[in-house]
């Protein structure tokens, strides 16, 4: 059974970037990994013989797979690091030390230093990141140093010590890399302005910096210093292509629970992301069955309570997509933009993927359950006496009244049954009369089924409003089938559903699966009818031209089109090739007809 459960999970994994977690039968975490494509990466563990003994042992112990979907590979990298640090999985060897990805620190001190670090010290300093490589950090710091002269010494530059002349400027001052705040050559206010500009750069706001770079580049170019100008251009390119932020980590979002919900007619799916010190440390989704048609708000409130109890969460703030009641002690935030909004969207995406996987798993394990649910829902929504397992839909096609045809498409158990589709040439109706045409085809279809003893449908749908519906009802009445088969009409404009003898239409919820299946039937009937109509129009056009040739009859036309496939090829055919199909004398007539015209 365990193996089957794993196989099922492997089949329904999303092909998106994310992080996967392996758990053993006791619920202990074995391994955390990242992937550009979750499905490919995770299935690779199970579909090949691993060289590493460690991996082989781990795969044997895997009892459950969980995953978190993220926006990009970079986010997956950062999230993997967070989860490994938090859970210390047994089979992760690489990232279990206390080192982490690099951050940029703006030190909490007078005349702050700006430097890279791997350790976060809670002393009021600001940390930006983490970055996925030191190369990115160094590029950014080089850019900052090129723009703003900052001190690199670790002196305590208190007002008193500077006033007492405790320090002397160093080589950095003489090289022009520092403006000498240690000897009061630079004011604190001026230095703080530079720090504020640097904050904007590390947050990803490069507007002012780019403007300064462009001015510098222009100045170098005007002085014919093209090498220097090119160096600055390279920095501009790096800055423009650089993205400083990640949705996975933001140091300002601290100790928050994030909840979101997606739902359908039967279930709600509530996702929970737990954030600690700005990093996601847990993702979990639960499925909740609707008992009394609860709203998303009611389900989310129930889900929040259940999940917080299950994971013993004591955080005082939650982020949600809409307002909910969560108790007086909890602050509820509905983010409108920025990183907070992105983190709620990430939670919603994980809930959606969970729902898709449940559907896929359900179809694999119990394909009938999905169909049964939809059929029961259609019976209820459309007020039918029985489930519409067999549905037929009719559509008329004519353009300016020419070549009127009709189509009948058949759905069985909610899916197209193409072998049962039928097309009709309208025989008894002159000119464009949709109502009379509908009556003719409905009558012909069910007279035929009755004569041949074939099963009748549970539901007939006619494409059109009251008029077409009345025509369909009239045909059923003539055959003695009125009341034995349910029949409805669907009007195109507002998706109104009409019932015989009822002037007030029914409007289904735009999201309902019942309406989606009716629309699919209607669109399929329209497609099938239009295709047949086009074939007939083109066929009539071809036949007309060939039949105009004296001495050429219908059988010869059919033979020619069967072999040459188009009128153009008939026109271009040589006398020999025409003769091989219809004989010399008729071939000569057709050949001369077209080639004399050409002359």
UniProtKB/TrEMBL annotation:
PROSITE patterns: GIY_YIG, UVRC. It comes from the Bacteria. SUPFAM superfamilies: C-terminal UvrC-binding domain of UvrB, GIY-YIG endonuclease, RuvA domain 2-like. InterPro entries: GIY-YIG_endonuc (IPR000305), GIY-YIG_endonuc_sf (IPR035901), GIY-YIG_UvrC_Cho (IPR047296), RuvA_2-like (IPR010994), UVR_dom_sf (IPR036876), UvrABC_protein_C (IPR050066), UvrC (IPR004791), UvrC_RNase_H_dom (IPR001162). CDD domains: GIY-YIG_UvrC_Cho. Residues 15-93 form the GIY-YIG domain. Keywords: Cytoplasm, DNA damage, DNA excision, DNA repair, Excision nuclease, SOS response. Residues 272-471 form the UvrC family homology region profile domain. Pfam families: GIY-YIG (PF01541), HHH_5 (PF14520), UvrC_RNaseH (PF22920), UvrC_RNaseH_dom (PF08459). It is found in: Cytoplasm. Belongs to the UvrC family. The UvrABC repair system catalyzes the recognition and processing of DNA lesions. UvrC both incises the 5' and 3' sides of the lesion. The N-terminal half is responsible for the 3' incision and the C-terminal half is responsible for the 5' incision. Interacts with UvrB in an incision complex. This is UvrABC system protein C.
